[in-house]
Amino acid sequence: MDAYITKLDGAVAVDDTILTTGCPTTAGSRMLENFTSLFEATAVTKMKAAGYTLAGKTAVGEFGLDTLGETCFFDAPLGAAAKIVSEGEVMAALNVDLNGAPRRAAALYGVTFIKPTYGTVSRVGVVPCACSGEQIGVTAKSAKEAASLLAAIAGHDPGDGTSFSAGKYEYALDIPLAGKRVGIIRELMTGENTGKVETMAAKLRALGAEVTDISLPEVSLAKTAWQVLLAAETCNNLSRYDGVKFGYRTEEYKNIEELYVGSRSESMGLLAKAVILYGSDVLSKGRYDDCYDRALRARRRVREALAGAFGEADILLSPACLKAAYTKEELKPLLSVYEESVYTAFASVTGVPAVISGGVQMVSDTLNDALLLSAAAQTEV
Amino acid sequence: MNYETVIGLEVHVELKTNSKIFCSCRNGHTQDANENVCPACCGMPGLLPVFNRRVVELGMTAGMMLGCDITRRTTFDKKSYYYPDLPCAYQITQWFAPICRNGGVEIETKSGKKFIRLKQIHMEEDAGKLIHDDWTDTTMVDFNRTSVPLIEIVSLPDLRSADEVLAYLERLRTLLRFAKVSECRMETGTMRCDVNLSVRPEGSDTLGVRTEMKNMNSLSAIARAIEYETARHIDAIERGTETLVQETRRWDDVKGQSFAMRNKETAADYRYFPDPNLVPVVIDDAWYESVRATLPELPEEKAARYVSDLGLTEADAGVLTASRNLCDIFEAAYPQCSSPKDVAAWIIGDCMGLAGKKQVTADDVPVSPDKLAAIVNMVEKKEITRGAAKRVLAAVWEKDADPRAFVEENGLKAQSDEGAIREIVTRVVASNEKIVADYKAGKTKAMQALFGLVMKELRGNGDPAVIRSLLEEALS
Amino acid sequence: MDRTALASALELNQLRLTESETEAVLAFFADMAKDEPALLIKELDEIEPMIHVVDLVNVLREDEASQPFTREELQKGAPEASDGCWQVPRLLE
Prior knowledge:
The complex is a heterotrimer. By secondary structure, chain A is an alpha/beta fold.
């Protein structure tokens, strides 16, 4: 087995939007409270094959749509997975990054998280929401464990039509930072975490990296594009939860319409419903061209802008979220996650890798996951 | 006022594949409900759609058979609506870039030949089946058929009558069966047809209000539905019996009427969008050509060849080329025999005769061409009589018997040894004085009786010509 | 997004909302709508939609059948099933 496993002997917690057998996968929703999958996620199978053990499931916000897990139907702390990793209860966790929740959680708990390049880890076994951008990532105490677990779960899966094969998956942590260019995204230097960004900048400079300012105004366009695309795809992926085949069914119904409406309305929370309804609207006949189709074009525009940015910087640096701490109370408004998504959306919508370390976010071009993990590893000390 | 009926058809055809379109479940006959189902095709989260290569090859094949342009970069889209036979509340189909566009087929009715244009062909997944149970007031959901691969063939509104519609459907069926794309049987649901119909005054070129009809389970039901709906439209226009509304209607063949469907499918906004899990299928020249190379000759081309090269009559060529199965048997058998016409006669006469008795269509004649050839050759070499050969054929059909072995086991070898037959003739004549006397007294039928007795002794294997000539000799 | 559009979305998605939920959702839409004009910039007029972030084509499966789960396993969590079928209230035609 791999020398990177710590004394916790490879105990890994898995988000409750990742399917496991032998226990329910609830996706944080009453709808799936008693749903037990017949198969486990490919990532879980691979991690077990590499010698890791499944420690248990961690709470997530309903379908992973929220800021930090505040909409979980079951009682749970914010950022549950990052919390137990930071407390040393488990070695690592597998989390689905749909709209940045695991990134924010890792930043707040001071642990490492990597959302790998889209297509690296199979999405077979993810409770699907926005298939075009969601990806399983790894939360761990440090970059070493994250890299090791990521290498174990990465790889082409013929069951996932968007997974690619990169041959070997090895995430070297000793890529030299000397001479690498780091761009701090000017438009994202807002909120309470800018100080952490400066701290990281100083550490990177000490390693020989060139850290400057970079302008990437397209981060706002990315936020808008991702909220439209995410809503539309999620609306479609959540329509299967209808009380007919599995999951929650309402108790009183006289006909199929009442069965559908009752089952869905009674078992899903308000944020999920708001996203479904907005997603349906952006796909509707009169709105598709001006909303959904435009968002797809905006995705390409953001990708082009990132390509330009990566011509000037190897790593983009920014805060991961607005505040340094959160309470469930202040996250009650429906829009909470959309106050935060400007920091995380540009990596979600384009599929480029993002790493959280030292409470901040570093993003690089596709397949540069190792560079990000190296930066994290070498600045951790 | 004379009216013209304007009809467009949407024909759904189930493709002949081993597995479903986006999951590996079996695509095939089932005995029980929900035996060809997996988490994906019953709506559970976690599995992703992966496209079955054979489906696009059959889609290309169908398009090539129907003269279509093949879309070289074809993609998949999701169509959303709620109905219990749709486990995910969406169907994966093709909205933006269907696999085929344009094309069409020539049909022939008693009014002559006509070209019916296609709008497009697209690939999509089928829905499940609902079984309504009045006793328990429930509906049972069976997902066996969910995700079975379909192509939908959409015509332009070029059809003008039930006759034309039936000719069009027959032509589609012939071509698609010929190319082994689908069984194309309305009785088993492997071919289904929705009819879009409107009427307008003769000579007008604006279209009237269009209604769509579903649930016609046979060609004759389609004809009845068209007649009824045409009359209903005309009644509404001329006598104001009702207001025509663009809607989907359900044909009830028992009542002989169409009814507006309760589910508001027609008002639904399907909110099509590209499926993020399915990347485009790009068909390059090499792939295109490799599929083209597998296309069968068109039935008409085969028929012409049978007539010009093999000397068959047009009528016989026509019967054979109406069925891919008969062509396959014929083409594999005749090279092993000396006379293609003979082989054709055996297929058209004897095999189809058996098919009639067993109530089986040409496409299901189960006779191995090698065995048929063996039978034809044995008759030609006078090893067995034609009568015995019919028995052998029946055995080949029913039990896939080996012809030579069957002949041995059942003593069917033809008896043409003159000496042996003469002995029997002599005996029969000697022991049937009355019949002989009748014959000599002018009752020619008596010859038949003597012939029958000789043949009986030979257990049916006597060479009839030899028996007849020896009898005549003995009675002269 | 007005109440008519919301009503249509509720029907298409088989959902209902209480009055206070309706207000919250309408406010949500209003806030989303504030960002939408950014998508209509001229710059995007000539850009092709990007549906996939990976550059893959022709990801295909061979036509082989397999049945990894039984009907009993699949119907284990069914709210209502009988005679091997999932059951819903009788549909009217």
